[in-house]
Amino acid sequence: MSFDLQENEKLSPRWRILTCVVMVVGFSILGLITRIAYDNTPPIPGRVVDPEGRVLFTREKVIQGQGVFLKNNLMEHGTLWGHGAYLGPDYSATHLHEQTLALQQLLALKIYGKSFESLNSFEQGSISQEIPKLLKENRYDSETDTLLFRPEEAKTYALSQDFWKHYFTSGEAPGLPKNYISNSEDLEALTSFFAWAAWAAVTNRPGEEFTYTNNFPYDPLAGNTPSSDAYLWSALSLIFILGMTGLVLFTVSKFGLGWGGGVKKRHLCETHLTLPHLTQSQKATGKYFVVVALLFLLQSLMGGALAHYRVDSTFYGLPILDYFPYNLLRTWHLQLSIFWIATAWIAGGLFIAPLLSEKEAKYQKLGVDLLFGALLIVVSGSLAGEYLSSRNVFSGDWWFWFGNQGSEYLDLGRFWQYLLIAGFSFWLFLLYQALKPAFKMPKRRELSLLFFLSAATIPVFYVPAVFYTHETHFTLIDNWRFWIIHLWVEGFFEVFATVLVAIISAQMGIIRAITALRIIYLDAILYLLGGVVGTGHHWYFTGQTNVNMALSACFSAMEVVPLTLLTMEARDFIRLSHTKCAQCGHYMAEKQQWTIYFLISVGMWNFIGAGIFGFLINLPIISYFEVGTNLTPNHGHAAMFGVFGMLALGTTMFCMRSMQEEELWNRTKNFIKVGFWGLNLGMALMVILDLFPSGVLQLWDAMQN
To answer: Would 686 be classed as within a structural domain?
Structure first.
């Protein structure tokens, strides 16, 4: 059978050992970085006072303001310390810059008795030199838990309250309705949160020459310019990528690893991809793929609405802003992308597992149906909760549990997250039930076990999503958030994707089982080698130390290595996809031609979206200026949809084609052809004509201004 190892085929135990070593070392370093983050978060002072001892705001007020920030979903409108959405401002950077402009006027009046604009160039220069000295001095006393603001800083804080009140009530905030936040207590708390975030961004760490956010954001007027670490570790990371690329290419070429490991010789009629051989549980997965199509369509419509908001906040005169503000639509756009991709993979796993075991587990169809019902509850419930949260329906902290948490990508309420974890766990149980017979087959045990273990990482590594609340320090919220966005998606999704592709290829007969095993281990080693510690490249400027910058810059650079390897493997994969049966002359993958095309596009977009565009923004010095520009969604769209979305569609194609009779397929295949080329060309045009050039222009503008 296609999944069976041959008598003379045996996988070296070194593959397993090396994979375990990579994971242990990687998670040890990542755990160390997280521990350092907990010990070195920017302090939130118990009291912030002026020279007269008057309390301006307190720790409780900052935490309350963070809650206002999250409850009102402002991270899906603008950014904070560089992370979030791109229609609104970076709130910390805007607060800091407005503060420096106010300081210019206050110092000019204090020293020269006139406005800053009326000063000569020498006088303006002297004022500009004083501002960084004033802002960068760390006057936080840890013993009394008190932060002292100079008189001028205290005055700018009072002015900032008027600034943010006007911003959120006047209707000038793009994509947000008038009086979006109008409660005076909420506005005061939110201003305190922004003031603290700006203070952490501009104030030097004790005994250091860089700030709590490693000198982010770039604001020369405030004295914020790239730190020495940003330059140093950007340069040294290039050594890591060049060295690792050379080592991997040498190893792959020497030992003949990759897809070109030989073809399993079998007659086409032995394939298990004809309808009569499908189990009841496999047939029951069909409704999952209908949901995939509907969610994908809805997500695309949300994306179109987001693009529309950049030019007009009405729709043919209809005030959609009042009912569907930008941040709500962006929340839905992101959540729907995760939902439809995950749904396709869940269904694909349930479909593929019986192919390995060749048996139907007891009550498996019932389990598949129950999981489908749970999926509908989580999807519809969380989307509805996010809408109700945008309408301020929830009182107290219920918004956090059933509405919108306010953390980009992890927006769904905590209750829905727990249900999602439970659903993933039940899915894993169903996979175990389906694979259990295969675990007892010596020739299939390892491939089945790898399939199960890679699937297990999906519920296990989603658990960090519940490690924080809306009152947790923002640095730590972002820490755990990227355990999901990067480690869960870009790390273990990649591994699970590799396993799916390898198993599908083995089932079609274009590679041998031993080749599939080697590919899985090789890609797992390479993806996790750089990807686990590389999670920290998202934390360069979010309140973590320069230790994280050093480690993450070097390891994340190595994430490009397996993606570079894709260019070598692409030729072998395309050649294998055209393999013919030795007996009848038919193509081995004849019935799954379009599945192959989707898998080829996965590799192409993986190299372009994750490799080229991802590496472009990974270097600390580039990331410093690039954060908040369209280069981030340029990478995000090309990698998220181009890789995981295309694989989800490829998995859908594989399963649905296996369920279709020839007559039905002949009526639908032209639609598949149009869809495939339309999606790939559409993504290419989006990148080439919009996101990449606009991102480059924004990067240039950020560096210049």
So the answer is: no
